Amino acid sequence: MTQAEGVFMSDNTHRTLSHVLRLRRLGIDTYQEPVIYMRNDCHVCRAEGFEAQSRVQVALNNHSIVATLNVVTGELLALDEAGLSEAAWRLLGARAGDAVILSHPPVLESLSLVRAKVYGKRLGGGDMRAIVRDIAAGRYADIHLSAFIAACAGDRLDLAETISLTRAMIDAGERLAWGRSPVVDKHCVGGLPGNRTTLIVVPIVAAFGLTMPKTSSRAITSPAGTADVMETLTEVELDVPAMHRVVEREGGCIVWGGAVRLSPADDILIRVERPLDLDSDGQLVASVLSKKAAAGSSHVVIDIPVGETAKVRSREAAQALSHRLVETGRAIGLTVQTVVTDGTQPVGRGIGPALEARDVLAVLRREADAPADLRERALRLAGAVLEFSPEIAPGEGVRRARDILDDGRAWNKFEAICVAQGGLRVPSVAEHTHAVTATQCGRVTAIDNRRLARVAKLAGAPRAPAAGLELHAPLGTVVKPGQPLFTMHAEAPGELAYALDYIAAQPGIVRVEAEP
Amino acid sequence: MTQAEGVFMSDNTHRTLSHVLRLRRLGIDTYQEPVIYMRNDCHVCRAEGFEAQSRVQVALNNHSIVATLNVVTGELLALDEAGLSEAAWRLLGARAGDAVILSHPPVLESLSLVRAKVYGKRLGGGDMRAIVRDIAAGRYADIHLSAFIAACAGDRLDLAETISLTRAMIDAGERLAWGRSPVVDKHCVGGLPGNRTTLIVVPIVAAFGLTMPKTSSRAITSPAGTADVMETLTEVELDVPAMHRVVEREGGCIVWGGAVRLSPADDILIRVERPLDLDSDGQLVASVLSKKAAAGSSHVVIDIPVGETAKVRSREAAQALSHRLVETGRAIGLTVQTVVTDGTQPVGRGIGPALEARDVLAVLRREADAPADLRERALRLAGAVLEFSPEIAPGEGVRRARDILDDGRAWNKFEAICVAQGGLRVPSVAEHTHAVTATQCGRVTAIDNRRLARVAKLAGAPRAPAAGLELHAPLGTVVKPGQPLFTMHAEAPGELAYALDYIAAQPGIVRVEAEP
Questions:
Q1: Which of B17, B48, B150 sits opposite A150 (nearest CB)?
Q2: For residue range A165-210, what is the model confidence (pLDDT) as tens digits?
Q3: ipTM, 2 decimals?
Q4: pTM
Q5: CA B158 to chain centre
Q6: Which of A27, A70, A505 sits opposite B30 (nearest CB)?
């Protein structure tokens, strides 16, 4: 064996035979999963016994990641070359021609803890730390993440495990500090299209004088996340120093949380949770509270919409979730106030980033046709946040919030926040629209949030910011044949056609029943 | 939009907009997961909103699969081209330049049943059929398979669910018919290197006059599968008509099961089960029995080796597994007899295809130094199979099996089967060997099956058929310094060197302890 073929690396405990290949950029995007491409007949695969789907440790410049192997049988790569997926390329900061050192990854001991959880055992604090540390370091393959998520789904995490998971997730990432108290926050557990109250609550609270540095997510399974909606109005990809400057000046901000690397294990889990679409009280609580604690919040209001097709389907489920949020918050030093709200139908009219932004602007500008339900929800939540202030008596919050909205202070503050984040923009408008109409006389008796959200996604939301739909017929509306129930918006004709196909195949997304 | 860019496909219920790209072969092996590669700026991704990790329906010649999208940002593909992973290429029977039709896949309704199982609900027969049908059709992504496996792991499938899963897996593939009864079979639940009894059991049973059409697997994570060992002696890639001709003439065969497509959902689940390393009695039972039933067997003996480094680690676990195998067999019309055996060390001397074949030949030819443990295990299992015959009284099987082996009938039958399958070959011999010796006096007190298997793989097995190792010192052997513990065999000097490096870094694979 020549020096070029193999090098020995030493550490205190054992030596490992490693190998070198030169990097070639293939430009393959596997989303966030790191993948390495090697010839099946290269000396590394032959000597190490690597095969398709093997996990391979890839080291460059004293930094290493674990990637999944896809072997190449054709002429895509030379025998002494390796390719990386774009995610792996970024993680290693690679350049074409760099020499990477390849070896078997260390055995992932924490997977035995995941297996134990799959078999129904309880996990302790140290167990959760070991699992979350390896997840945050990118050592789990997607199938391992999926097994962990399935093992914790439903009610399989008890309160103590939920607290351990939350702590482990906070410890695995950065934590912001604001040097003042209280630092307030709000969150909605989700499942309700159009529920974009954050963009109204933050300016009300900041105008009052409380500090509210809000980090929001992009859509996970929904047609729009708060960050997606805000992005149609201003910049949201601010780094930590930029975020500090905005909060220093305006008392609040609304930025994308992904840019500040809070609770990175949560981001990795969410990537797999999304296509699995699995609910888990324990993971939901850990995800929400770890992000809030890492963002430096001390007090948080959590909106729990309840409805048959919302994420939380019954009052009892909402109460159980509320209890777990409050208790976990207490354990990690976070004051949590939950607000159970109506989740039977979408909020406002728009579903999709730009369409939801339009609703928000109408409320903030006090336009005559602004959606009243969005306004009332936002006031209720803003009131709850304001009551964290010692200056506001219990029960007084909503009235104070209404004053700030109605006299224009909230709109002025929102404009100022947008300017501080990079300038206020006008949301884009879709080129292609199509009205879906009622086929009979009657009253709207049910709206399926999940299928309606799916329709908006098929139309292109949130990737296409102007895509989505506008709902014209909330619950109780009396309609005639031909009257529009909702209007589809799309940026591409193919997407519009596909959404319409789905609607045709799934009658009753908005249910109209003849009146007796 | 031009005709080349989009076509409408119609069926009874709805229309779907589809798109066409030309195939280019990239030669990327993702193991069995179907992956499609497309430019992110191609018209299909733009019109359909496809992104990295999107699931895409790919149709060619009236056949369609669902593949995971990896988008390509570089020059790997032209704008009107798509690439496929080798697995997807094979599934579609593609040729370079073929035009594939791309669209969104239909919504996978059966995933809601997987979610229900994750949440702890019981699945009925119809639920299992729906899930398994979609798995067999390749509609599940790996993370969906992983969630399903985790939801069923440990003891989360009860007996009724195990039976439903087994039935669903049988129904999802081909089923062979032999027009006679009994049709007997044997299986080992695995984890024990060198346990190559099948090649001895089949000729004994066929020589007696029972029908035993054996389909075997190639190695998945082990240094040799039964099909790999048989392949060093004769052809194993027989199609169903050829298999019928051999069984018609000789009463038995030993062929590779992969060529006959039995229980295809099982093959897909195994691909994800391996790297997860999750044990599940229910899935193991469904996997084994669905393959046997699909192969047309009516009676099967199942070998359950028990040992610390075998798959089943305790007598209690073996008993629970045995009960479930027998009861599930009863429900699907298969008579199951289990045999619990010693799984504390490898069987015979050889580990690796040709070396294991040599052990088998030595037993069949009654050579003086034939491995006694392999012979005795094979006789015990053959005896259990023979007792399925109404002509053999309980307790008489092993004696009758011994007679058939000792008077040369088994060897004659084995030769005849090999001739019928394509001719008897002489296994190849490795060019490079190296003895690994004891470094101290003492007794062999433990052998790590898993690490020993790894050594044989590093030496080149099963890809290099003559590679592997010969074990000279089974448990209890008293050794002196310099006495060989095992001999490495390799076809290439580099592989030999690499296996020896691993051995040097991993002391105690064969543990020698000084006697007091």
A1: B150
A2: 999 999 998 899 999 989 999 999 976 888 999 999 999 999 999 9
A3: 0.83
A4: 0.85
A5: 24
A6: A70
